[in-house]
């Protein structure tokens, strides 16, 4: 099956020399939910804006359902719905008029039944005659989704859809996204909430400094995020690990003073208790202990420096971080 979006060697350099995207290659499958994770300024919005035809690429190609986004702009743009990060809505227009007008912009025939169904799906039907200025931030976010879906696109881009909304609305949004997927819409969302990607995505892409560092099945990436390390400092350095300790997933630092144990927080048990017992039985005295956990930033660095072991060791010696939220 051909990808619904195909991106090849895509780069974007803004005036002034800032390179927002660097040789991005990505294929998005029809009907999937793809989450693009990355910190602020990573290039997520530039990537989405380029695919949607808002930003011109410096080099490379993008096709949407085999339509080139520059040569076949109208055909490709008709297939796309975009929900921007900012709440860009007029103040005095009603909800109904806003989405009706948006549908007309794409040259679609009048279809009040579809728009009613859409507003009901987004819990906006009872607000259809309300002026936009009277709505809460969460309701305005729903109106933006209704606008993006008004012309029945095949692909929906959601740029930070739950930024600044409460937990209840965030969960509502996740349910809306799932239902859209069931109806055959391909969804690409940008987020820096790891739990958001974990909850709804099929695949996860990681972007940092304009580079696509990874595109991977969600379960595999989450397994990496679930890894922790216990670093045990011993009083008297040793040259090699005893047979007893070699049974565990441990490594010894170059100076022989630290034993590092990697374990999966999602497993049935960590094995720490039995490891500490084995250290004790080996006649070693403990000086200090600390744990570290992969943060999103660590994963970025580890991906970029995959063959640079020193860099990985440096990152893993950090003090424990909480989950990214």
UniProtKB/TrEMBL annotation:
Gene3D superfamilies attached to this UniProt entry: P-loop containing nucleotide triphosphate hydrolases (3.40.50.300)
Single GO molecular function: ATP hydrolysis activity
Keywords noted in UniProt: ATP-binding, Nucleotide-binding, Transport
Region (Disordered): 305-325
PROSITE patterns according to UniProt: ABC_TRANSPORTER_1, ABC_TRANSPORTER_2
Domain ABC transporter: from-to ranges: 5-234
CDD domains for the chain: ABC_DR_subfamily_A
InterPro entries from the UniProt entry: AAA+_ATPase (IPR003593), ABC_transporter-like_ATP-bd (IPR003439), ABC_transporter-like_CS (IPR017871), ABC_transporter_ATP-binding (IPR050763), P-loop_NTPase (IPR027417)
Domain of life: Bacteria
KW Nucleotide-binding (keyword) present: yes
Entry protein name: ABC-2 type transport system ATP-binding protein
């Amino acid at each position: 099956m051909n990808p619904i979006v195909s991106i090849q060697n895509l780069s974007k350099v803004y005036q002034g020399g800032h390179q927002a995207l660097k040789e991005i290659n990505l294929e998005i499958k029809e009907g999937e939910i793809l989450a693009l994770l990355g910190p602020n300024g990573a290039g997520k919005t530039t990537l989405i804006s380029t695919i949607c035809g808002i930003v011109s690429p410096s080099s490379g190609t993008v096709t949407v359902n085999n339509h080139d986004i520059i040569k076949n702009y109208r055909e490709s743009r008709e297939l796309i719905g975009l929900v921007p990060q900012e709440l860009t809505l007029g103040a005095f227009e009603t909800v109904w008029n806003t989405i009706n007008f948006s549908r007309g912009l794409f040259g679609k025939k009048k279809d009040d039944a579809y728009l009613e169904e859409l507003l009901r799906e987004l819990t906006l039907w009872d607000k259809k005659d309300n002026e936009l200025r009277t709505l809460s931030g969460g309701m305005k976010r729903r109106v933006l989704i209704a606008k993006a879906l008004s012309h029945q696109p095949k692909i929906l881009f959601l740029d930070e859809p739950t930024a600044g909304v409460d937990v209840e609305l965030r969960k509502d949004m996740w349910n809306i996204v799932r239902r859209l997927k069931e109806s055959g819409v391909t969804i690409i969302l940008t987020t820096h909430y790891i739990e958001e990607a974990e909850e709804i995505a099929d695949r996860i892409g990681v972007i940092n400094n304009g580079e696509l560092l990874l595109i991977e099945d969600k379960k595999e990436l989450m397994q990496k995020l679930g890894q922790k390390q216990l670093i045990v400092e011993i009083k008297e350095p040793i040259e090699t690990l005893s047979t007893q300790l070699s049974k565990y997933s441990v490594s010894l630092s170059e100076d022989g003073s630290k034993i590092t144990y990697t374990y999966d927080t999602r497993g049935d048990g960590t094995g720490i208790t039995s490891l500490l017992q084995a250290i004790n039985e080996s006649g070693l005295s403990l000086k200090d202990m600390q744990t570290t956990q992969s943060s999103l930033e660590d994963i970025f660095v580890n991906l970029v420096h995959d063959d640079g072991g020193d860099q990985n060791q440096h990152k893993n010696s950090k003090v424990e971080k909480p989950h990214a939220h």
